[in-house]
Every structure is written in structure tokens, then in C-alpha cells.
């Protein structure tokens, strides 16, 4: 059959090979070209059971059997349109009926043509009771089989199960991938031949065949290894290129040893931990380089990251440059500003009578500032009078001119997308790039970090000096009234002892519909049953209800959520900080970084709606001062239900690294660093970030070697193309340039 020639290798549109239905089915997974089709892996495989004899098959059994068609009859159905096709088959030991309810005429013709009398077929399905006391199999899988050893092995091969969207059937997906296999040789081959040979990996064409028509599960795994290695290789090549580019880019050398940083160290009300010292040294040596650093500073909530970052920022100022600290929200930017001014004391008082002679100026720059304040601040930023600037990440996109930006610290990277940091490249003085440090309290396991942010130097803090009190977490079942009562009673006791309570809700108002949970489809394209979450409680209604709870009588209750104006939010946070509010009911706006050392209780309502790292962040809001913290994860799930077990696992683990693994295992890499992130880490398709560590490291070695020998990938055009695609998928605005 004559087929159209592809216009260009690898970019043959699928519409030229497939039916319209198949093309649409794949397009719903964003698979539009032969290249993508060949890399579209089945979700899992079903291995038919060993062949059984019909004589032994009992009602309810899932069976596979080789049988012969004896008889076939069809009748119309009484209660609905369509026909009933019944096929009697036997394997010589017994007889069963294969039953098909068919809505459309052509389907009956299709089955009949494949099931002539005397045909040998292998049939898979569940045995049920038939009409006249016999046994039947409704809608079995079947195919013709040759009665030879190979034929039987073929009949027993694993069946790929593809992910599905609504109105797409496995049959459509199977026929589409089978047709794609015929064109496997036209696809871009990203992995160099020598690499494949050296590692004993199958070629892409072979891998595609193994994935879609494996004879054994081992073959399927072998095919998958190609895709995993290829994915890791492309990612690592991106990182290798970025690192190589950094080495060609000049950056200010932040090397000065004073005066501010040593003065600051003297003023610290505590001694730095060993880890803080060590990481501080490592960071200092990196930003002392004449090329831009990109570092990820990770450590649990309270591990003292901010202090380390501040010391590096002072080093930048000491070296005659500026430093900026970016926070995800205005509330947090303001808090950082307060903290920094507080920690610096007279060192932040440049221009004031009581300022230290070596002092610098610390400026806050947010979108909601009044024009006059903003103009003044901008003047300080542009002139260089402000050594340290604190703002929201809007600063990245705004055309704010710095006199000489040497260091950028980004707090809580999971809100940004790590890749955004590359926007900052242009902001340095005289064509130089500033150094960038991203701080995160959602630690990433080592392999995962290598795979997803492999162009960053990862610096990890393991102690938590700032968590003096510590936090104990409990799961509370809303349906067990006594537990709930005890929880509020406990909150009341803490308030009576002068402490404060956070209550976090999943939404603002109960009048509104919950955000619809994404519908998951099973492999037959049916919607999976709803997990049965109770509607979430809202901030407004919860605050009203708490006002009437006897356990909290007399408590001063405040509310905080994203619909308040900036001033209102500031006011509430200030009241909370000043101890004028006892119970703050809020949405997750307080999730990251809010610092109220006097708060000792964190109650998360409908906790099953929150992610692992969110819950960990939330409980990190208490126990920050001298008082031990208590976190309650209140859930509508029944004890023993999956949601409860999951919450209990979080409650039982305080190690952020173990939690990150738990999270990875449960949700996969896409959600590694939170929901709102973008970038490379959100597009990992095939890699298992926990298990593929050896493979990732091997791919890294190969990719770095390739980029070293051919920095612009002139000899590796297929890799260059794959990188371009990957970056486009990862972040359309940032990376296309
Ligand atoms: P992170 O940003 O990692 O959550 P912070 O730097 O905000 O942590 O520190 C948390 C709290 O611990 C702050 O109140 C900080 O002043 C305090 N802190 C930081 N380092 C130390 C230390 N070495 N000893 C005692 N307290 C510390
Ligand atoms: Mg912090």
C-alpha cells in the first residue's frame, strides 16, 4: 500500500497514518507526531493467566483457554435496540457460551467474520452463569490462535493497557500504536548508537516494538529502559548545557569579608549550627566565583535557611553589590522584610542617626505600595542606596533597574517553578548575571534533584535549630465526635496558657461548589468511583461555628484569606503577631513561612484535601518558639480508609526527606515540588525518580560528555531537537528564547 512520504523525519503528522478516531484519541494525550507516538508507553500490562480447561472453570474465575467455535447464533434483544450474539465454544472438556451485546449491526458482522465455525481461538474473560444453567463469558477478549508452541506463547503474551480518556477504547489505542510501529524507523533517534551499544539498550524502533507487543514482561521492561534512559539523557543534556553556558557568563565576584557580615554574626542572638556554618562556607565560595551560581538551598522548615541566605546577601553588599530576596506573596515579603530589619538592627539603618556607620538600607518593594513610597524605594534600588531589596516574585518580570544586582535569593521555590530563575540572568550589572539561590522547605531526595534540577548545586541543611519546641501530629476523625471535642478542648487549653491557634480550611466559603476533583478514568474509559470526600468546610462558616464552641469560649477569632484586601491581610497578620488574635481561621495563605513563635496549635480541617508537603509546611508553622507544637489533621475519612492511613503516615513522620519520598511514591514526579510549579520537573514522563538513580547518574555522565565535546550540539541535531521540544513543554514563555 502506498503511503505518503513524511515531510521531515520524525514529524510525520499522525493524521496521515491513522484513522480520524485514532488521531483524535492520541491528540487527547498531546501525541500528534510519530515520534511522540513511539514514546507513548502503555500504563501497565495484563498477563493472561495460564491456560485452563473449561471443565475446571468455575463461575467467577478469570480464565484463558484455547477453544474451538462450535456454533454461533444471534437474536434481537427484547428491552433495548441491538442484538445478542452467542457463540458456543468447546475445548473438548466442556462448553461455554461467549456472549456479546451489540448495539450496532456492523459489530455483529465483525465478530462473525472472526469467529467462523471451527475456528481456533484463545479466549480471556470471567466465567459467569448463562441463561439455561450453562456458563457464559460476556464480552471476552479473544483472538485466533495457531495450535503450535509459538502460537500458544503468542496467545499468552502480556497485553498493553493504555491510559484512556473518555470515549476512547483500548482497541483504538492498540490499533493506533500498532500502526505507529510500522514507522518506527522514521523516528528521531536521540540516543547515540554507541551509547545504546555500550549500555546494551535496544534501539528506539526495537524498544517501541518491545513496549507495544512484548512477548514477556521482561521485554516490556527492556523497551521501557530505552525511554527512561532517553528521558534522563535529554534532561541531563539540558543541565549540561546550562552549566556550560554559566561558565561562559560573567558574574560579580562576591568575595568581600566585611564589614557587614562579621558585624551581623556578632549580633546574632544564637550561634550558628555546624550545618549552617558548612553550608554558609560552600555558598560563600560559590558566589565568590566569576560565573553565576545556581544553588538550591534545601532544609526543613526552621532549619535556618533564611539566616544563611541573609549572610550571603550581606556578603554581596560588602562586595559593593545589591541583593534581592523574593517571596511568593506580599504577606511573606513583608514578613521577610521585618525579620531582616530586625536581625540587622542598626546595620540596616543607613541614613538614620542611630544607624551603624557601615549600615546599608533594606527596602521592601511590593505591587500594592502607594506610588510615593514606591517611587522612593525605586530610587534607592536604582541608585544602589538599598543594599538589600525584599519583594514578591513580580520583581522578576517588572522592569525594575538595579544599580548592581549581585545576588538573588528566591524563597520557597515550589511556588515559582525553578526555571523562572533564568529570567534573572539579564538583571546583573554590565552584562553580568547575578548569582541565584533558591530556598525550599520541600526537600527533594537526591536522585530526584539530580533528575529534575540537575543544573543547580543542591545544598542541604539537616538540623532544625529553629524548631525548638518540636511538633507532634495527630489524625482526628471528624465523625468521632469525642475526638473532635478533645481537639478543640486542647486548643482551648493552649489559649488559656497564652498561646495561639491556627485553623486551616480548604476553601473560603461553603456556599460555593468545591473545585471539581479531576475525574480519573479506569482502563476501560469509565469514570472511577468518586473517593467520597465530604464537602470541605469554609473559613467563614468555620469561624462562625468556632465562636459558639464552648471549648473556645472567650477566644478572639480572626479570619484570613485571599479575598481580603492587602491592607486587611496585613492588619490581621499584625494582630496575630501581636497576640491580639487567639484563633486564626484561614486558607493556606499561611502555608509558607508565616512566623508566629507564640502559636502552638495547628488544626487542618479536611486534611485529606491537602498534599503531603502542604501538611508538613502547615504544621511547621507551630512549635517554632519555645513551646512544643501540636498539629491536628482533621479528616472526614473513616478510620482505616486510605485517606486516614495516608494522613497517619504523615503524622508519624517528621523527617522532611522521608515525607518527600512518601509524596513521590504516592503522586509521582509531576507533583514533586507542589502544584503550581512549572518547568522541567513537571514534565517527567517515564523516569521513576526514586528507583532509577543508577540510570539517571549514568545518563548524566553520558550527556555531560556529549555536551562537553559538542557544546552547541551541531553533531547531535536530534538531541538538540529533543531539548528544544522539552523546554517548550516545560515553560513556554521562559525557555523559547
Ligand atoms: P527556615 O527559613 O529554614 O524556615 P529560619 O532561618 O527562618 O528557618 O529560622 C527559623 C528560626 O530559627 C528563626 O527564628 C531563626 O532566627 C532561628 N534560628 C536560625 N538559626 C538558628 C540557630 N543556629 N540557633 C537557634 N535558632 C536559630
Ligand atoms: Mg524561612
Automatic annotation (TrEMBL):
<keyword id="KW-0234">DNA repair</keyword>
<dbReference type="InterPro" id="IPR011545">
    <property type="entry name" value="DEAD/DEAH_box_helicase_dom"/>
</dbReference>
<keyword id="KW-0238">DNA-binding</keyword>
<keyword id="KW-0547">Nucleotide-binding</keyword>
<feature type="compositionally biased region" description="Basic and acidic residues">
    <location>
        <begin position="517"/>
        <end position="530"/>
    </location>
</feature>
<dbReference type="GO" id="GO:0003678">
    <property type="term" value="F:DNA helicase activity"/>
</dbReference>
<keyword id="KW-0378">Hydrolase</keyword>
<dbReference type="Pfam" id="PF17191">
    <property type="entry name" value="RecG_wedge"/>
</dbReference>
<keyword id="KW-0227">DNA damage</keyword>
<dbReference type="InterPro" id="IPR012340">
    <property type="entry name" value="NA-bd_OB-fold"/>
</dbReference>
<keyword id="KW-0347">Helicase</keyword>
<dbReference type="InterPro" id="IPR014001">
    <property type="entry name" value="Helicase_ATP-bd"/>
</dbReference>
<feature type="domain" description="Helicase ATP-binding">
    <location>
        <begin position="286"/>
        <end position="461"/>
    </location>
</feature>
<dbReference type="Pfam" id="PF19833">
    <property type="entry name" value="RecG_dom3_C"/>
</dbReference>
<dbReference type="GO" id="GO:0003677">
    <property type="term" value="F:DNA binding"/>
</dbReference>
<feature type="domain" description="Helicase C-terminal">
    <location>
        <begin position="475"/>
        <end position="670"/>
    </location>
</feature>
<dbReference type="Pfam" id="PF00271">
    <property type="entry name" value="Helicase_C"/>
</dbReference>
<dbReference type="InterPro" id="IPR027417">
    <property type="entry name" value="P-loop_NTPase"/>
</dbReference>
<dbReference type="InterPro" id="IPR047112">
    <property type="entry name" value="RecG/Mfd"/>
</dbReference>
<dbReference type="InterPro" id="IPR033454">
    <property type="entry name" value="RecG_wedge"/>
</dbReference>
<keyword id="KW-0067">ATP-binding</keyword>
<protein>
    <recommendedName>
        <fullName>Probable DNA 3'-5' helicase RecG</fullName>
    </recommendedName>
</protein>
<dbReference type="InterPro" id="IPR001650">
    <property type="entry name" value="Helicase_C-like"/>
</dbReference>
<dbReference type="GO" id="GO:0006281">
    <property type="term" value="P:DNA repair"/>
</dbReference>
<dbReference type="GO" id="GO:0016787">
    <property type="term" value="F:hydrolase activity"/>
</dbReference>
<feature type="region of interest" description="Disordered">
    <location>
        <begin position="514"/>
        <end position="543"/>
    </location>
</feature>
<dbReference type="InterPro" id="IPR045562">
    <property type="entry name" value="RecG_dom3_C"/>
</dbReference>
<dbReference type="Pfam" id="PF00270">
    <property type="entry name" value="DEAD"/>
</dbReference>
<dbReference type="GO" id="GO:0005524">
    <property type="term" value="F:ATP binding"/>
</dbReference>
Amino acid at each position: 500500500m502506498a503511503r505518503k512520504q513524511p515531510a521531515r523525519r520524525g514529524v510525520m503528522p499522525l493524521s496521515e497514518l491513522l484513522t480520524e478516531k485514532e488521531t483524535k484519541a492520541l491528540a487527547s494525550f498531546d501525541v500528534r507526531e510519530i515520534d511522540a507516538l513511539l514514546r507513548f508507553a502503555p500504563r501497565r500490562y495484563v498477563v493472561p493467566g495460564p491456560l485452563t480447561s473449561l471443565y475446571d472453570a468455575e463461575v467467577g474465575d478469570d480464565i484463558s483457554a484455547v477453544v474451538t467455535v462450535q456454533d454461533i447464533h444471534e437474536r434481537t434483544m427484547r428491552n433495548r435496540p441491538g442484538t445478542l450474539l452467542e457463540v458456543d465454544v468447546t475445548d473438548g472438556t466442556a462448553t461455554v457460551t461467549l456472549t456479546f451485546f451489540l448495539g450496532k449491526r456492523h459489530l455483529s458482522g465483525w465478530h462473525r467474520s472472526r469467529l467462523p465455525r471451527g475456528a481456533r481461538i484463545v479466549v480471556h474473560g470471567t466465567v459467569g452463569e448463562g441463561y439455561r444453567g450453562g456458563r457464559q463469558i460476556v464480552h471476552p477478549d479473544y483472538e485466533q490462535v495457531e495450535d503450535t508452541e509459538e502460537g500458544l506463547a503468542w496467545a499468552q503474551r502480556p497485553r498493553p493497557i493504555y491510559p484512556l480518556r473518555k470515549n476512547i477504547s483500548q482497541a483504538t489505542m492498540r490499533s493506533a500504536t500498532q500502526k505507529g510501529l510500522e514507522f518506527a524507523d522514521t523516528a528521531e533517534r536521540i540516543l547515540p548508537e554507541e551509547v545504546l551499544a555500550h549500555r546494551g539498550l535496544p534501539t528506539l524502533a526495537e524498544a517501541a516494538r518491545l513496549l507495544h507487543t512484548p512477548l514477556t514482561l521482561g521485554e516490556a521492561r527492556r523497551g521501557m529502559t530505552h525511554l527512561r534512559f532517553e528521558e534522563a539523557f535529554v534532561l541531563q543534556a539540558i543541565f549540561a548545557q546550562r552549566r556550560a553556558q554559566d561558565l561562559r557568563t560573567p558574574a560579580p565576584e562576591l568575595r568581600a569579608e566585611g564589614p557587614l557580615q562579621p558585624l551581623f554574626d556578632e549580633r546574632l542572638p544564637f550561634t550558628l549550627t555546624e550545618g549552617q556554618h558548612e553550608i554558609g562556607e560552600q555558598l560563600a565560595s560559590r558566589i565568590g566565583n566569576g560565573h553565576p551560581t545556581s544553588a538550591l538551598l534545601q532544609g526543613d522548615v526552621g532549619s535556618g535557611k533564611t539566616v544563611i541566605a541573609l549572610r550571603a546577601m550581606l556578603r554581596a553588599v560588602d562586595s559593593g553589590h545589591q541583593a534581592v530576596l523574593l517571596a511568593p506573596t506580599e504577606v511573606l515579603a513583608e514578613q521577610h522584610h521585618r525579620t531582616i530589619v530586625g536581625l540587622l538592627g542598626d546595620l540596616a539603618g543607613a541614613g538614620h542617626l542611630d544607624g551603624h556607620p557601615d549600615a546599608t538600607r533594606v527596602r521592601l518593594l511590593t505591587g500594592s505600595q502607594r506610588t510615593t513610597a514606591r517611587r522612593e524605594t525605586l530610587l534607592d534600588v536604582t541608585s544602589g542606596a538599598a543594599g538589600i531589596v525584599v519583594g514578591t516574585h513580580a520583581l522578576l518580570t517588572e522592569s525594575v533597574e538595579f544599580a548592581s544586582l549581585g545576588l538573588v535569593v528566591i524563597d520557597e521555590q515550589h511556588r515559582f517553578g525553578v526555571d523562572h530563575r533564568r529570567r534573572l540572568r539579564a538583571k546583573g550589572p554590565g552584562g553580568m548575571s547575578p548569582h541565584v539561590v533558591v530556598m525550599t522547605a520541600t526537600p527533594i531526595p537526591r536522585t530526584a534533584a539530580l533528575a529534575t534540577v540537575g543544573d543547580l548545586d543542591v545544598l542541604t541543611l539537616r538540623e532544625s535549630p529553629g524548631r525548638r519546641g518540636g511538633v507532634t501530629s495527630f489524625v482526628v476523625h471528624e465523625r468521632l465526635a469525642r475526638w473532635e471535642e478533645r481537639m478543640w478542648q486542647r486548643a482551648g487549653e493552649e489559649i488559656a496558657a497564652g498561646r495561639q491557634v491556627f485553623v486551616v480550611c480548604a476553601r473560603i466559603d461553603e456556599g460555593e461548589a468545591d473545585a471539581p476533583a479531576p475525574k480519573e478514568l479506569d482502563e476501560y474509559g469509565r469514570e472511577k468511583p468518586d473517593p467520597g470526600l465530604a464537602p470541605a468546610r469554609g473559613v467563614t462558616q468555620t469561624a462562625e461555628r468556632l465562636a459558639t464552641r464552648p471549648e473556645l469560649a472567650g477566644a478572639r477569632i480572626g479570619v484570613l484569606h485571599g479575598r481580603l484586601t492587602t491592607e486587611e491581610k496585613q492588619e490581621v497578620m499584625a494582630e496575630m503577631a501581636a497576640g491580639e488574635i487567639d484563633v486564626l481561621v484561614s486558607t493556606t495563605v499561611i502555608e509558607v513561612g508565616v512566623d508566629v513563635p507564640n502559636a502552638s496549635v495547628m488544626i487542618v480541617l479536611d486534611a485529606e484535601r491537602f498534599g503531603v508537603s502542604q501538611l508538613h509546611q502547615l504544621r511547621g508553622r507551630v512549635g517554632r518558639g519555645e513551646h512544643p507544637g501540636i498539629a491536628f489533621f482533621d479528616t472526614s475519612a473513616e478510620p482505616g480508609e486510605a485517606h486516614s492511613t495516608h494522613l497517619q503516615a504523615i503524622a508519624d513522620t517528621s523527617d522532611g526527606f522521608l515525607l518527600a519520598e512518601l509524596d513521590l511514591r504516592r503522586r509521582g514526579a509531576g507533583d514533586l515540588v507542589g502544584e503550581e510549579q512549572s518547568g522541567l520537573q513537571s514534565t517527567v514522563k517515564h523516569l521513576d525518580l526514586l528507583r532509577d538513580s543508577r540510570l539517571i547518574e549514568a545518563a548524566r555522565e553520558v550527556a555531560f560528555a556529549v555536551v562537553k565535546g559538542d557544546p552547541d550540539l551541531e553533531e547531535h541535531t536530534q538531541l538538540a531537537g529533543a531539548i528544544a521540544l522539552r523546554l517548550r513543554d516545560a515553560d513556554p514563555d521562559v525557555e523559547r528564547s
